């Protein structure tokens, strides 16, 4: 299994004491498979995604990525796993405004030491960005910006791609087209893909679904 999550627990502090958000979540995801993470607002989807990305640490339980327990790593070890193994796509595109589209595309691959100009050019072509490489993010539409964010992740060739409502800022038609393209490129890359979505329709396009209710898998 590429990703195995076992009995994950996470609470957040509040004035009335700790509030449990994840209450024993377990699942696994194989390489090349896509999984939609659904559930009501507040059910713990983003929290689960952030833990899988090593952006936060669980209170209990295990997150094993390619045989390594991410929670058992030091901060530096977690940062290295994020850089080398995991790719993240958020609802906010999070592009670097001062860098051109071309430099945004290759940014993560460079950090991971996997920069390949020929591959980047082919990826830009597939993403419909070839004519926009010298532009800056603010000169692109939302759909184009999200395609840059997706390309930036794919260019670094992560084995696990985590996406938090990646089409949430796009209109329905643009969102559906961007998701199709993302799924096609993810399938070609062989990565495992975990995506938070509120949309039943988008969730149905992935191989499987994990539905959270009040911090537990339903
Ligand atoms: N850093 C934090 N500190 C305190 N509480 C938090 C924190 N992050 C999340 N929470 C709480 O945890 C619960 C779950 O939040 P989470 O964002 O994981 O839900 P979600 O299912 O992704 O919701 P949505 O669909 O609205 O994005 C919420 O009640 C939220 O207020």
From TrEMBL:
Pfam families: ABC_tran. Residues 3-218 form the ABC transporter domain. The keyword ATP-binding applies. Keywords: ATP-binding, Nucleotide-binding, Transport. CDD domains: ABC_MJ0796_LolCDE_FtsE (cd03255). One of its GO terms (molecular function) is ATP binding. PROSITE patterns: ABC_TRANSPORTER_1, ABC_TRANSPORTER_2. The keyword NAD does not apply. GO terms for cellular component: plasma membrane. InterPro entries: AAA+_ATPase, ABC_transporter-like_ATP-bd, ABC_transporter-like_CS, ABC_transpr_LolD-like, MacB-like_ATP-bd, P-loop_NTPase. This is Putative ABC transport system ATP-binding protein. The lineage of its organism: Bacteria, Pseudomonadati, Pseudomonadota, Alphaproteobacteria, Rhodobacterales.
